[in-house]
Amino acid sequence: MRRFFIESTEVNKPTVSLSGSETKHIKNVLRLKAGDTIRLFDRSGFEYDAMIKTLSGGRAELCIARKYPATNDSPVQLIVAQAFLKAKKMDSLVRQLCELGMNRWIPFFSERSIPRPDEKRLAARMQRWQKISQESFKQCGGSVLPQITAPLAFEDVLELGQACDVKYIFWENETQPLDRTFASRTNHTINDILIMLGPEGGFDMREIQKARNYGFEVAGLGPRILRTETATIAACALMQYLYGDMGKKS
Predict the structure, then answer these.
(1) Which of 98, 127, 136, 217 has the lowest tally of Cβ within 10 angstroms?
(2) pLDDT tens across 123-169, in order?
(3) Residue 128: which of 90, 101, 100 has the closest Cα?
(4) Backbone angles phi, psi at 4, to 5 degrees
(5) Are residues 117 and 144 in the same domain?
(6) Is pTM beyond 0.85 here?
(7) Which of 117, 119, 111, 121 has its CA nearest to residue 199?
């Protein structure tokens, strides 16, 4: 069943409505009509079965038949901090990381970040990432829309990591792979995970040392040279395997 986003403030009304591109998709692409059922989701972790009452004039009037908690979300909150990359690489990353269950996206400036967009361009890029995340979110079946954070400095991300249960920084010069036993050695419940990935030129050694001083685990991703965006996707998938819902739990 196709899913459509609705604000959580709307769902308690006797009749809810969709308009704009959502209605066009219902009417012109899916060819639905009055009496058909669609699925709605909001940002609070709930989904709704809704019946189409009327469909006309670019507006769909709906009646909610059932509300239930969504079950497709990972049990952990995964925060991905990505150093700025060139061109549109980060657009693709937002889309793919949403599919992998990312909960929060934090772009940041590191020592070797080449792109340094001005305030106007940053605002435009954030708006685009919001749109991409919502589109990907609809496709992959999540229920809590990922948060897109305004760009931060490297040190600010390190500070944010102090509130997380697990924090990794991935570095291409680290010879030791991700420690498979770290999850089992952690003696507390893991809810919040932060991973940091560098730009095309990688992290500076001084940045790695700072991260270690803040308690970050430093890990590599194997002996092969990975493109930066490939490394980020691999790291996210590994986190979901170790801590989330992509691996079998003992």
Answers:
(1) 127
(2) 999 899 988 888 887 776 666 778 899 999 999 999 999 999 999 99
(3) 90
(4) -135, 140
(5) yes
(6) no
(7) 111
